């Protein structure tokens, strides 16, 4: 009898294991190939016009005083378009207690208090150099849930178990609501949101209105034009912990009644369609751009040209146009790593680049843990990160799985993929400019100085906390960095002027430094850099970063110039590099990096300014090509070295002995310039 029951138990166990194996590997949701995709047809969504010597006029879309000072040849304004406060459902459980008003005050140079672990003296932080513009971009997902859980007596959901866990904080508190963003089809928590999610929608409206009011109150509408704010939010799609996040930045305060969420718009095409109708179509003064970020952590999915495989040709073309119309900028660096490039991808022909792998998080050959929440039963498993292959994409949902990485996860590779898309479909969905930002979750926009950075979350406000190891599924602490800045060349510091330049991609990103890079294509003499009116001639006889032109059959030149960060502690400039990407006649992808200017050999601390006129001797007008400028400072300490070395040896935390990089080079990247071959 016992043997018989033992046999049954073994059979039952084998059956359950088989069921688990099957259900943990069976995709739950299939992609809907019949989904209607809204093609952008409005004037606001049409391509910008670029030509040598052309610059558009500026018109205000809101009531404000004209700026007293305008810069016809444009000025570099620095800001942060990726900022979280306690409104975000991951920031509050992590200890953040700063709100949008605090973030804007900090950006203007006022001190704010940061949370610290128990027993640690209070911490006040202040920007030494205020920013010119900021957008607070709290997660749109769980905006309402967070409000309900933070505010006793406002809604019944405050007393729910989910809200109790949220308020207790830590990783469990973060997971209460943010885990839903890692699913393929997220849902709201009924115990918090009530019937038909009515309470969460009401609470979201309250939060959204407060965010708009904070941005309006902080915006300088006087003729001084000292500080600009943008209304915005982050759309947070994190399927299987792959980052497909986007920062939504509005032109002004004429915005939709509610932010779009991954819960309500679970595909990129539905999100961009919503932005087209609810903003550009339904509100006359409304305009918006959508900025992808952390593509380095997207697992092959952020710029996947096969994401709509199985859809009709018309639907796929409509989506390409959507991305071209809304993805005007992409974030190249932030605290969770840099997304410019990595060496070693098989589909790109290129020499090794000394600055690729800069602040890399996922790397080929690195052990990692993958999760899959798109199956009937979730699973977690060990992987060795590898380059994505065709069979890594699940045909049921067109999603790459297994934590592979693709050359398209990095902006350099995605730009090449965009050239290929244009070659085949006459629309480039990956035609974006470049910015950097911080992704602070402490409400400290622009806190990017390596020596004084106070971390990303409350647990990192001590050096010991920053030097720790990240928890499973997190990309913070020692592996993280202070993040970057967004730079915009504009005629004045107003929303309309900045947004006009952002939409035209006359923008650049830095790794946190305040280098000011200029980049033009045009007809320039070899001695242009030595002329007093060089900048006037640059605009008069050419067009700046972000421009898209037809291939040049006559000789043309690239003009590159950069000025160092003027802060006394900043390093000088070491070199200017032109990064060229192109497709050969067989469709193969190529990258070439060329040093076009270097610091004086005797000047070991770097130059104050570098400038060069460069004619590409290998340019072929029959090939789709892009160029962008990269600027490097001389070597400096990474934050983890700088902050440890600032302490006496006996006072240094144990974490100061670590395997992270000791030295880095601060970088700046301009938006590309595209030269597109005529159709044969």
State the main characteristics.
14-stranded mixed beta sheet, 680 residues, 29 strands, globular, four-stranded antiparallel beta sheet, alpha+beta, 14 helices
Topology:
Elements: H1 2-23, E1 75-83, H2 100-107, E2 112-114, E3 123-125, E4 133-136, H3 143-150, H4 161-168, H5 170-178, H6 190-193, H7 198-218, E5 228-235, E6 246-250, H8 268-281, E7 288-292, H9 313-326, E8 329-334, E9 337-338, E10 348-349, E11 367-372, E12 379-384, E13 393-394, E14 399-400, H10 411-425, E15 433-436, H11 463-466, E16 485-490, H12 495-503, E17 507-510, E18 516-522, H13 534-540, E19 542-544, E20 548-550, E21 557-563, E22 573-583, E23 589-598, E24 609-614, E25 625-633, E26 636-637, H14 639-645, E27 663-664, E28 667-670, E29 673-676
Parallel strand pairs: 1-4, 4-5, 8-15, 10-23, 20-29
Antiparallel strand pairs: 1-16, 2-3, 5-6, 6-7, 8-9, 11-12, 13-14, 16-17, 17-28, 18-19, 18-21, 21-24, 22-23, 22-25, 25-28, 25-29, 26-27
Helix pairs in contact: 2-7, 3-4, 3-7, 4-5
Structure explained in plain terms:
The chain is α+β, with helices and mostly antiparallel strands and 680 residues long. It is built from 14 helices and 29 strands. Strands 1, 4, 5, 6, 7, 10, 16, 17, 20, 22, 23, 25, 28 and 29 form a 14-stranded mixed sheet that branches. The radius of gyration is 25 Å and the shape is globular. The protein starts with a helix and ends with a strand.
Assembly type of the chains comes to: single chain
- Average per-residue pLDDT, rounded, comes to 94
| N-end to C-end Cα span | 82 Å
Q: Quickly give the structural class.
A: alpha+beta
Give the DSSP E fraction (strand runs of 2 or more residues).
15-25%
Biggest sheet, open or closed, and with what strands and sense? 14 strands, mixed
Helix content: 10-25%
Our count of helices gives 14
As a whole number of angstroms, the C-alpha radius of gyration is: 25 Å
Q: How many β strands by DSSP? A: 29
Low-confidence stretches: none
Shape designation: globular
């Amino acid at each position: 009898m016992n043997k018989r029951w033992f046999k049954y138990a073994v059979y039952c166990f084998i059956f359950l294991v088989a069921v688990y194996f099957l259900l943990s590997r069976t995709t739950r949701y299939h992609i809907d190939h019949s989904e209607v995709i809204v093609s952008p047809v409005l004037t606001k969504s049409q391509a910008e016009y670029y030509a040598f010597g052309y610059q558009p006029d500026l018109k205000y879309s809101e009531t404000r005083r004209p700026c007293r000072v305008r810069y016809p040849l444009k000025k570099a304004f620095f800001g942060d378009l990726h900022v979280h406060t306690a409104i975000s459902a991951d920031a509050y459980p992590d200890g953040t207690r700063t709100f949008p008003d605090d973030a804007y005050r900090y950006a203007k140079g006022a001190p704010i208090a940061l949370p610290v672990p128990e027993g640690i003296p209070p911490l006040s932080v202040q920007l030494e150099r205020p920013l010119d513009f900021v957008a607070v971009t709290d997660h749109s997902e769980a905006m309402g849930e967070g409000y309900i859980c933070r505010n006793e007596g406002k809604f019944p959901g405050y007393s729910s178990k989910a809200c109790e866990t949220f308020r207790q904080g830590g990783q469990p508190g973060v997971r209460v609501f943010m885990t839903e963003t890692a699913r393929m089809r997220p849902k709201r928590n009924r115990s918090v949101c009530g019937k038909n999610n009515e309470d969460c929608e009401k609470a979201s409206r309250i939060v959204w209105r407060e965010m708009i009011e904070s941005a309006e109150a902080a915006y300088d509408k006087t003729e001084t034009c000292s500080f600009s704010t943008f209304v915005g939010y982050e759309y947070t799609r994190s399927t299987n912990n792959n980052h497909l996040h986007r920062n939504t930045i509005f032109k002004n305060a004429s915005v939709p009644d509610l932010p779009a969420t991954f819960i309500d718009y679970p595909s990129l095409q539905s999100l961009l369609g919503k932005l087209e109708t609810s903003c550009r179509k339904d509100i006359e003064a409304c305009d918006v751009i959508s900025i992808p970020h952390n593509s380095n952590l997207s697992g092959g999915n952020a710029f996947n040209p096969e994401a709509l495989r199985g859809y009709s040709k018309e639907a796929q073309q409509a989506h390409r146009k959507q991305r071209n119309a809304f993805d005007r900028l992409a974030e190249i660096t932030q605290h969770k790593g840099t997304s410019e490039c990595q060496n070693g991808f098989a589909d790109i022909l290129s020499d090794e680049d000394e600055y690729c792998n800069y602040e890399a998080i996922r790397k080929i050959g690195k052990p990692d843990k993958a999760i899959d929440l798109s199956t009937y039963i979730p699973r977690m498993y060990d992987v060795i990160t590898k380059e994505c292959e065709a069979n890594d994409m699940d045909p049921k949902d067109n999603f790459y799985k297994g934590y592979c990485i693709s050359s398209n996860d990095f902006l350099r590779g995605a730009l090449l993929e965009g050239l290929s898309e244009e070659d085949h479909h006459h629309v480039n969905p990956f035609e974006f400019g470049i910015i950097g930002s911080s992704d602070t979750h402490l409400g400290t926009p622009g806190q990017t100085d390596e020596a004084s950075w106070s971390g990303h979350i409350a647990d990192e406000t001590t050096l010991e906390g920053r030097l720790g190891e990240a928890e499973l599924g997190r990309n913070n602490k020692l592996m993280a960095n202070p993040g970057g800045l967004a730079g915009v060349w504009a005629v004045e510091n107003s929303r309309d002027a900045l947004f006009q330049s952002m939409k035209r991609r006359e923008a650049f990103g830095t790794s946190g430094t305040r280098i000011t890079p200029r980049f033009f294509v045009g007809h320039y003499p070899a001695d242009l850099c030595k002329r007093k009116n060089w900048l006037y001639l640059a605009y008069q006889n050419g067009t700046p970063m972000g421009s898209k032109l037809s291939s040049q059959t006559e000789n043309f030149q690239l003009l590159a110039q950069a000025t160092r960060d003027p802060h006394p502690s900043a390093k000088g400039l070491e070199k200017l590099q032109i990064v060229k990407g192109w497709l050969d006649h067989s469709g193969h992808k190529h990258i070439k990096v060329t040093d076009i200017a270097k610091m004086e050999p005797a000047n070991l601390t770097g130059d104050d300014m570098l400038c060069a006129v460069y004619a590409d001797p290998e340019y072929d007008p029959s090939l789709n090509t892009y160029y962008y400028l990269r600027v490097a400072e001389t070597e400096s300490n990474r934050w983890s070295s700088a902050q440890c070395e600032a302490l006496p040896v006996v006072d240094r935390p144990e974490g100061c002995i670590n395997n992270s990089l000791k030295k880095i080079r601060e970088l700046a990247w301009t938006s590309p310039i595209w030269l597109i071959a005529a159709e044969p």
